[in-house]
Write a structure and sequence with these properties.
The complex is a heterodimer of chains A (161) and B (233).
Chain A (H helix, E strand, L loop, with lengths): L4 H133 L5 H18 L1
Chain B lengths: L1 H9 L7 E3 L2 E3 L1 H22 L7 H21 L1 H24 L18 H23 L15 H36 L5 H31 L4
Helix pairs in contact in B: 1-6, 2-4, 3-4, 4-7, 5-6, 5-7, 6-7
The chains are: A mainly alpha (161), B mainly alpha (233).
Chain lengths: 161, 233
């Protein structure tokens, strides 16, 4: 084991020189670079997380909108169905009423026709009966006779009826 | 033969290649320069082409930086680890490359190529840097209050406390030097006994030991800083 001052001195000088070189050309740039990169990665990650959160919020919003639209559509369909039902019911009711009115009118018509016919028939029968009676009696039927006979006849006819 | 191998590794008294600024330059010093050049080229390649999606070399560099940062963070806490990271990481890389340079063929045999950490002069130099760093860190984090720990728990322990501080770099440097020098010696002896294949297991172990010794030196340096800067010491 030998010791020489000049090698000792050179060792210290050389160490300080290589320290300066490595500091300037290696540690400083590499550490700065690594720091920058980790900063950038951290920033990118946080940005990505933010973007994801935003995307999720938008998705949620659209889901809500979609659900709202579906509900609205259902409501519209339901309302339309209800309106249709009501219109149908109203139309039905109206036509039923019209039909009933028509029927009623027809009944009245028939009734009136029958009454007319009956009245006409009664007059015909009355005059025929008078004529027949005049023939049979051979004389003119007086007013009293006439009235009496017609009433009698009509009573009979009424009983038959 | 074995003795010759030991002499080849250790004998550097007459190893002065030339002088620079009046300081003699040895093979250990030139090897340090080569390691520095390799580190410089590597980190230039990496730092010039930093990509968001890293290539292989950049992945390795990122792994090294992050791994060491986490490792020191476990000892010192995140903030202090970042503050002293340049020193600690440089100890690790410089020592690691120095140790591994001894595995390359020709280490210790070629002129101008000897693993720097295989001489105590270099390891004590590094350990003295650790010593100064620890004292500066202590004063910086705790102010002059740091110096109070030299007279605690009682002032009479001052000499012992000073010895304790001085023993730290001594043990650091001797451990590193002893391991790497011993390993180099074993490899040299094996090589001189049976030149072919026999050094291979030793070289493989050298990879592992080189890593472990670099990690031990750096870990202890971090622990010393942690002790010196701990609150309520």
């Amino acid at each position: 084991m030998e010791f020489t001052w000049y090698e000792f001195t050179w060792a210290i000088i050389n160490f300080l020189v290589i320290l300066a070189i490595l500091y300037k050309f290696f540690y400083n740039p590499v550490i700065k670079f690594l720091d920058n990169r980790s900063d950038e990665i951290r920033r990118n990650i946080s940005e990505a997380e933010q973007a994801r959160a935003e995307a999720e919020a938008v998705l949620e919003e659209y889901r809500n909108k979609l659900a709202g639209a579906k509900q609205e559509a259902q409501e519209i369909v339901a309302r339309a169905t209800r309106v249709g039902e009501e219109a149908r019911a109203a139309l039905l009711e109206q036509s039923r009423a019209e039909a009933a009115a028509l029927l009623e009118k027809a009944h009245q018509e028939i009734q009136r026709e029958r009454d007319d016919a009956l009245k006409t028939l009664r007059q015909e029968v009355a005059s025929l009966a008078v004529m027949a009676a005049e023939k049979i009696l051979g004389r003119t039927v007086t007013k009293e006779d006439h009235t009496k006979m017609v009433d009698q006849f009509l009573d009979e006819v009424g009983e038959v009826h | 033969m074995g003795r010759k191998g030991v002499q080849e590794v250790e004998g550097h008294t007459s190893d002065i290649l030339f002088k620079l600024f009046g300081l003699p330059v040895t093979s250990h010093v030139t090897t340090m320069w080569a390691i520095m050049a390799v580190l410089l080229v590597l980190c230039l390649i990496v730092s010039r082409s930093l990509q968001k999606v890293p290539g292989r070399l950049q992945s390795l560099a990122e792994f090294t930086v992050e791994g060491l940062l986490n490792f020191f963070g476990g000892i010192l806490g995140r903030e202090k680890a970042r503050r002293y990271f340049p020193f600690l990481a440089t100890f690790f890389l410089f020592i690691l490359f120095s140790n591994w340079s001894g595995i390359l063929p020709g280490a210790g045999h070629l002129k101008g190529f000897k693993p720097p950490t295989s001489t105590w002069s270099v390891t004590i130099g590094l350990a003295i840097v650790v010593f100064v760093l620890v004292q500066v860190a202590g004063i910086r984090e705790k102010g002059l209050g740091y110096l109070k720990h030299f007279i605690q728990p009682i002032p009479i322990l001052l000499p012992l406390n000073i010895i304790e501080e001085l023993v730290k770099p001594l043990s650091l440097s001797l451990r590193l030097y002893g391991n790497i020098f011993g390993e180099e010696t074993v490899a040299a002896v094996l090589l001189s006994l049976a030149p072919y294949f026999s050094p291979i297991p030793m070289q493989l172990l050298g990879l592992l030991f080189g890593f472990i010794q670099a990690l031990v030196f750096t870990t202890l340096a971090a622990i010393y800083i942690s002790i010196a800067t701990a609150e309520g010491h």
